[in-house]
Write a structure and sequence with these properties.
This protein is of the alpha+beta class. The chain is built from four helices and 20 strands.
Length: 341
Protein backbone atom coordinates (compact mmCIF):
# COMPACT_ATOMS: atom_id res chain seq x y z
CA UNK A 1 0.00 0.00 0.00
CA UNK A 2 1.47 3.38 -1.08
CA UNK A 3 1.56 6.29 1.35
CA UNK A 4 1.10 9.86 0.30
CA UNK A 5 4.29 11.99 0.70
CA UNK A 6 4.05 15.27 2.48
CA UNK A 7 4.61 18.24 0.04
CA UNK A 8 7.20 19.81 2.30
CA UNK A 9 9.15 16.55 2.45
CA UNK A 10 8.93 16.20 -1.36
CA UNK A 11 10.34 19.67 -1.94
CA UNK A 12 13.08 19.02 0.59
CA UNK A 13 14.12 15.85 -1.25
CA UNK A 14 14.11 17.64 -4.63
CA UNK A 15 16.26 20.47 -3.32
CA UNK A 16 18.65 17.94 -1.82
CA UNK A 17 18.93 16.15 -5.19
CA UNK A 18 19.71 19.42 -6.99
CA UNK A 19 22.36 20.28 -4.40
CA UNK A 20 23.90 16.84 -4.93
CA UNK A 21 24.01 17.37 -8.72
CA UNK A 22 25.66 20.77 -8.26
CA UNK A 23 28.24 19.24 -5.91
CA UNK A 24 29.04 16.58 -8.51
CA UNK A 25 29.49 19.26 -11.23
CA UNK A 26 26.52 18.15 -13.35
CA UNK A 27 25.02 21.16 -15.25
CA UNK A 28 21.32 21.60 -14.60
CA UNK A 29 19.15 22.94 -17.44
CA UNK A 30 22.15 23.59 -19.79
CA UNK A 31 21.06 20.97 -22.32
CA UNK A 32 17.61 22.48 -22.71
CA UNK A 33 19.11 25.95 -23.01
CA UNK A 34 21.64 24.81 -25.58
CA UNK A 35 18.95 23.17 -27.77
CA UNK A 36 16.55 26.14 -27.64
CA UNK A 37 16.28 28.24 -30.80
CA UNK A 38 14.37 31.51 -31.10
CA UNK A 39 12.85 31.99 -34.52
CA UNK A 40 13.68 35.26 -36.24
CA UNK A 41 12.98 36.49 -39.73
CA UNK A 42 16.14 37.31 -41.64
CA UNK A 43 16.93 38.54 -45.14
CA UNK A 44 18.24 35.84 -47.43
CA UNK A 45 19.63 35.96 -50.93
CA UNK A 46 17.11 34.99 -53.56
CA UNK A 47 19.34 32.64 -55.55
CA UNK A 48 19.01 32.09 -59.26
CA UNK A 49 20.59 29.22 -61.18
CA UNK A 50 22.75 30.13 -64.18
CA UNK A 51 25.31 28.22 -66.21
CA UNK A 52 29.01 28.97 -66.07
CA UNK A 53 32.00 27.56 -67.92
CA UNK A 54 35.50 26.86 -66.64
CA UNK A 55 37.79 29.10 -68.65
CA UNK A 56 41.35 30.31 -68.45
CA UNK A 57 42.12 33.94 -67.76
CA UNK A 58 43.74 34.00 -71.19
CA UNK A 59 44.83 31.54 -73.87
CA UNK A 60 48.18 32.50 -75.38
CA UNK A 61 50.02 30.92 -78.32
CA UNK A 62 53.64 29.78 -78.11
CA UNK A 63 55.23 31.08 -81.31
CA UNK A 64 58.40 30.21 -83.16
CA UNK A 65 61.01 32.97 -83.31
CA UNK A 66 62.68 31.72 -86.52
CA UNK A 67 61.54 29.95 -89.63
CA UNK A 68 62.50 26.40 -90.44
CA UNK A 69 61.45 22.79 -89.91
CA UNK A 70 60.10 21.48 -86.61
CA UNK A 71 62.66 18.93 -85.44
CA UNK A 72 61.25 18.10 -81.98
CA UNK A 73 57.91 18.56 -80.22
CA UNK A 74 58.14 17.84 -76.50
CA UNK A 75 54.53 18.34 -75.30
CA UNK A 76 51.06 17.08 -76.07
CA UNK A 77 47.51 18.17 -75.21
CA UNK A 78 46.89 18.32 -71.48
CA UNK A 79 50.53 18.62 -70.39
CA UNK A 80 51.35 21.23 -67.75
CA UNK A 81 54.16 23.63 -68.73
CA UNK A 82 56.11 26.32 -66.88
CA UNK A 83 57.03 29.73 -68.22
CA UNK A 84 60.26 29.52 -70.24
CA UNK A 85 60.09 25.74 -70.70
CA UNK A 86 61.26 24.50 -74.12
CA UNK A 87 58.31 22.83 -75.82
CA UNK A 88 59.61 22.49 -79.39
CA UNK A 89 62.80 22.89 -81.45
CA UNK A 90 62.87 24.42 -84.93
CA UNK A 91 65.85 23.66 -87.12
CA UNK A 92 67.10 25.67 -90.11
CA UNK A 93 69.67 24.01 -92.40
CA UNK A 94 70.74 27.38 -93.81
CA UNK A 95 71.87 28.50 -90.37
CA UNK A 96 73.90 25.31 -89.96
CA UNK A 97 75.61 25.92 -93.30
CA UNK A 98 76.33 29.53 -92.37
CA UNK A 99 77.79 28.34 -89.09
CA UNK A 100 80.14 25.94 -90.89
CA UNK A 101 81.18 28.69 -93.31
CA UNK A 102 81.94 31.07 -90.46
CA UNK A 103 83.94 28.41 -88.64
CA UNK A 104 86.15 27.99 -91.71
CA UNK A 105 86.61 31.74 -92.06
CA UNK A 106 87.47 32.04 -88.38
CA UNK A 107 90.13 29.36 -88.75
CA UNK A 108 91.65 31.24 -91.71
CA UNK A 109 91.60 34.55 -89.83
CA UNK A 110 93.12 32.89 -86.79
CA UNK A 111 96.00 31.63 -88.94
CA UNK A 112 96.48 35.13 -90.37
CA UNK A 113 96.43 36.63 -86.87
CA UNK A 114 99.04 34.10 -85.71
CA UNK A 115 101.25 34.88 -88.69
CA UNK A 116 100.88 38.64 -88.10
CA UNK A 117 101.92 38.12 -84.47
CA UNK A 118 105.02 36.18 -85.56
CA UNK A 119 105.97 38.86 -88.11
CA UNK A 120 105.47 41.59 -85.53
CA UNK A 121 107.70 39.83 -83.00
CA UNK A 122 110.44 39.22 -85.60
CA UNK A 123 110.31 42.81 -86.89
CA UNK A 124 110.42 44.15 -83.34
CA UNK A 125 113.69 42.26 -82.71
CA UNK A 126 115.27 43.46 -85.96
CA UNK A 127 114.28 47.05 -85.22
CA UNK A 128 115.85 46.86 -81.77
CA UNK A 129 119.13 45.66 -83.34
CA UNK A 130 118.98 48.49 -85.94
CA UNK A 131 118.67 46.24 -88.93
CA UNK A 132 115.24 47.54 -90.03
CA UNK A 133 113.77 51.02 -89.72
CA UNK A 134 111.03 51.68 -87.14
CA UNK A 135 108.48 52.29 -89.89
CA UNK A 136 108.49 48.55 -90.60
CA UNK A 137 107.49 47.90 -86.99
CA UNK A 138 104.54 50.26 -87.35
CA UNK A 139 103.45 48.45 -90.53
CA UNK A 140 103.55 45.06 -88.78
CA UNK A 141 101.65 46.42 -85.78
CA UNK A 142 98.91 47.69 -88.10
CA UNK A 143 98.72 44.35 -89.89
CA UNK A 144 98.41 42.56 -86.52
CA UNK A 145 95.60 44.88 -85.42
CA UNK A 146 93.74 44.34 -88.70
CA UNK A 147 93.98 40.56 -88.31
CA UNK A 148 92.76 40.65 -84.70
CA UNK A 149 89.84 42.91 -85.53
CA UNK A 150 88.81 40.72 -88.49
CA UNK A 151 88.92 37.66 -86.22
CA UNK A 152 86.74 39.37 -83.60
CA UNK A 153 84.25 40.48 -86.28
CA UNK A 154 83.83 36.93 -87.59
CA UNK A 155 83.50 35.60 -84.04
CA UNK A 156 80.71 38.13 -83.38
CA UNK A 157 78.98 37.13 -86.61
CA UNK A 158 79.20 33.50 -85.57
CA UNK A 159 77.65 34.40 -82.20
CA UNK A 160 74.70 35.98 -84.04
CA UNK A 161 74.13 32.79 -86.05
CA UNK A 162 74.48 30.70 -82.90
CA UNK A 163 71.86 32.86 -81.17
CA UNK A 164 69.52 32.33 -84.10
CA UNK A 165 70.00 28.60 -83.72
CA UNK A 166 69.24 28.91 -80.00
CA UNK A 167 66.08 30.84 -80.87
CA UNK A 168 64.92 27.71 -82.63
CA UNK A 169 63.71 26.62 -79.20
CA UNK A 170 60.03 27.44 -78.76
CA UNK A 171 59.45 28.51 -75.13
CA UNK A 172 56.22 28.41 -73.13
CA UNK A 173 54.97 32.00 -72.67
CA UNK A 174 53.35 31.36 -69.25
CA UNK A 175 52.54 28.74 -66.64
CA UNK A 176 49.54 26.70 -67.69
CA UNK A 177 48.28 23.69 -69.60
CA UNK A 178 48.66 22.85 -73.30
CA UNK A 179 45.27 23.01 -75.00
CA UNK A 180 46.14 22.17 -78.59
CA UNK A 181 49.12 21.39 -80.81
CA UNK A 182 48.91 23.24 -84.10
CA UNK A 183 51.80 21.51 -85.94
CA UNK A 184 53.58 18.17 -86.08
CA UNK A 185 57.22 17.14 -86.30
CA UNK A 186 58.51 17.90 -89.79
CA UNK A 187 56.17 20.84 -90.38
CA UNK A 188 57.69 23.90 -92.06
CA UNK A 189 56.97 27.09 -90.12
CA UNK A 190 57.78 30.77 -90.53
CA UNK A 191 58.94 33.20 -87.88
CA UNK A 192 55.96 34.07 -85.66
CA UNK A 193 53.83 31.03 -86.50
CA UNK A 194 52.00 29.55 -83.44
CA UNK A 195 53.18 26.09 -82.40
CA UNK A 196 50.85 25.29 -79.45
CA UNK A 197 48.22 27.15 -77.45
CA UNK A 198 48.63 27.38 -73.67
CA UNK A 199 45.84 28.16 -71.19
CA UNK A 200 47.15 30.13 -68.25
CA UNK A 201 47.15 28.29 -64.95
CA UNK A 202 44.62 30.34 -62.94
CA UNK A 203 41.20 29.18 -64.09
CA UNK A 204 37.99 31.10 -63.47
CA UNK A 205 34.28 30.59 -63.85
CA UNK A 206 32.73 32.68 -66.61
CA UNK A 207 29.06 33.31 -65.89
CA UNK A 208 26.44 34.26 -68.44
CA UNK A 209 23.59 35.89 -66.56
CA UNK A 210 20.27 36.99 -68.13
CA UNK A 211 20.14 40.77 -68.37
CA UNK A 212 17.07 41.00 -66.10
CA UNK A 213 19.34 39.99 -63.21
CA UNK A 214 22.13 42.38 -64.18
CA UNK A 215 21.06 45.07 -61.70
CA UNK A 216 21.53 42.63 -58.81
CA UNK A 217 24.99 41.52 -59.96
CA UNK A 218 28.12 43.27 -58.70
CA UNK A 219 31.75 42.51 -57.92
CA UNK A 220 32.22 40.90 -54.51
CA UNK A 221 28.93 38.93 -54.53
CA UNK A 222 29.08 35.31 -53.40
CA UNK A 223 28.21 32.41 -55.68
CA UNK A 224 27.54 28.79 -54.81
CA UNK A 225 28.20 25.55 -56.67
CA UNK A 226 26.19 22.49 -55.63
CA UNK A 227 28.07 19.39 -54.61
CA UNK A 228 26.21 17.47 -57.33
CA UNK A 229 28.07 19.57 -59.89
CA UNK A 230 31.41 18.60 -58.30
CA UNK A 231 31.12 14.80 -58.38
CA UNK A 232 29.52 14.58 -54.94
CA UNK A 233 31.89 16.92 -53.14
CA UNK A 234 30.72 19.53 -50.65
CA UNK A 235 29.25 22.76 -51.99
CA UNK A 236 31.85 25.38 -52.87
CA UNK A 237 31.62 29.14 -52.51
CA UNK A 238 33.26 31.78 -54.64
CA UNK A 239 33.33 35.51 -55.29
CA UNK A 240 32.56 37.50 -58.43
CA UNK A 241 35.68 39.38 -59.51
CA UNK A 242 34.51 41.30 -62.54
CA UNK A 243 31.24 42.16 -64.26
CA UNK A 244 31.80 43.08 -67.91
CA UNK A 245 30.01 46.28 -68.97
CA UNK A 246 28.65 44.83 -72.19
CA UNK A 247 25.57 42.71 -72.81
CA UNK A 248 26.00 39.98 -75.41
CA UNK A 249 22.91 38.24 -76.80
CA UNK A 250 20.84 39.33 -73.82
CA UNK A 251 23.33 38.08 -71.23
CA UNK A 252 25.76 39.77 -68.87
CA UNK A 253 29.25 38.24 -68.64
CA UNK A 254 30.97 37.98 -65.25
CA UNK A 255 34.08 36.23 -63.93
CA UNK A 256 34.19 34.48 -60.55
CA UNK A 257 36.97 32.85 -58.53
CA UNK A 258 36.35 29.54 -56.74
CA UNK A 259 38.97 27.84 -54.61
CA UNK A 260 39.74 24.24 -55.53
CA UNK A 261 38.16 24.50 -58.97
CA UNK A 262 39.23 21.70 -61.33
CA UNK A 263 42.01 22.71 -63.69
CA UNK A 264 41.92 20.06 -66.39
CA UNK A 265 38.80 20.46 -68.53
CA UNK A 266 38.59 23.90 -70.07
CA UNK A 267 35.04 24.70 -71.12
CA UNK A 268 33.39 22.45 -68.50
CA UNK A 269 29.81 23.69 -67.84
CA UNK A 270 28.58 24.01 -64.25
CA UNK A 271 25.32 25.18 -62.72
CA UNK A 272 25.98 28.11 -60.38
CA UNK A 273 23.65 29.87 -57.94
CA UNK A 274 23.94 33.65 -57.89
CA UNK A 275 22.18 36.46 -56.04
CA UNK A 276 18.93 37.66 -57.59
CA UNK A 277 18.04 40.10 -54.81
CA UNK A 278 17.00 39.56 -51.16
CA UNK A 279 13.77 38.53 -49.42
CA UNK A 280 12.72 37.79 -45.81
CA UNK A 281 12.60 34.17 -44.71
CA UNK A 282 12.70 31.88 -41.67
CA UNK A 283 15.88 29.80 -41.70
CA UNK A 284 16.47 27.07 -39.11
CA UNK A 285 18.89 24.11 -38.94
CA UNK A 286 17.49 21.02 -40.59
CA UNK A 287 18.11 19.03 -37.40
CA UNK A 288 15.14 20.82 -35.77
CA UNK A 289 12.70 19.25 -38.27
CA UNK A 290 11.36 15.71 -37.96
CA UNK A 291 9.18 13.88 -40.45
CA UNK A 292 6.45 11.45 -39.47
CA UNK A 293 4.07 9.86 -41.97
CA UNK A 294 5.09 12.38 -44.63
CA UNK A 295 4.43 15.46 -42.48
CA UNK A 296 7.19 17.71 -41.16
CA UNK A 297 7.08 18.81 -37.53
CA UNK A 298 9.04 21.09 -35.20
CA UNK A 299 8.88 21.04 -31.43
CA UNK A 300 7.56 24.36 -30.13
CA UNK A 301 7.99 25.41 -26.50
CA UNK A 302 5.03 27.35 -25.05
CA UNK A 303 4.63 28.03 -21.32
CA UNK A 304 7.08 25.28 -20.40
CA UNK A 305 5.14 22.82 -22.56
CA UNK A 306 6.58 21.31 -25.76
CA UNK A 307 4.14 20.67 -28.57
CA UNK A 308 4.61 19.36 -32.10
CA UNK A 309 3.65 21.87 -34.78
CA UNK A 310 3.39 20.90 -38.46
CA UNK A 311 5.39 23.07 -40.84
CA UNK A 312 5.92 23.39 -44.57
CA UNK A 313 9.53 23.19 -45.50
CA UNK A 314 11.11 24.99 -48.41
CA UNK A 315 14.37 24.28 -50.11
CA UNK A 316 17.70 24.11 -48.37
CA UNK A 317 19.51 27.44 -48.01
CA UNK A 318 23.03 26.55 -46.89
CA UNK A 319 25.35 29.37 -45.92
CA UNK A 320 28.98 29.38 -44.76
CA UNK A 321 27.67 30.04 -41.22
CA UNK A 322 24.83 27.46 -41.39
CA UNK A 323 25.69 24.62 -43.81
CA UNK A 324 22.43 22.73 -43.02
CA UNK A 325 20.11 25.74 -43.25
CA UNK A 326 16.50 24.98 -44.19
CA UNK A 327 13.79 27.47 -45.13
CA UNK A 328 10.41 27.13 -43.39
CA UNK A 329 7.53 28.52 -45.45
CA UNK A 330 4.72 28.28 -42.88
CA UNK A 331 3.95 26.98 -39.40
CA UNK A 332 6.29 29.17 -37.31
CA UNK A 333 6.45 32.87 -36.50
CA UNK A 334 9.03 35.33 -35.26
CA UNK A 335 9.70 34.87 -31.53
CA UNK A 336 8.74 31.18 -31.39
CA UNK A 337 11.08 29.02 -29.35
CA UNK A 338 12.03 25.70 -30.93
CA UNK A 339 13.49 22.68 -29.18
CA UNK A 340 15.81 20.31 -30.98
CA UNK A 341 14.37 16.77 -30.99
Amino acid sequence: MMTRMDPVEYLTRCLGFLVLLAALGVPVGSRAAAEMLTVAQQPVIDEKAVFATVESISVVPARGRIGGTVAQLKVREGDRVAAGQAIAIIGDEKLVLQMKSLDAQIEALQAQANQAQIDFTRTEGLVERGILPRVKLDEQRTALNVADNGLRAKAAERAVINEQLNQGQVLAPADGRVLKRLITVGSVVLAGDPIVTVAQQNFKLRLRVPERHARFLKAGDKIRIDGAELAGEASKWGLIDLVYPQIEEGRVIADATVEGLGEYFVGDRLRVWISGGTRPAYIIPSSYVTTRFGIDYVQLRKSDVTIDVPVQRGRGLPTPELPDGLEILSGIHAGDRLVQP
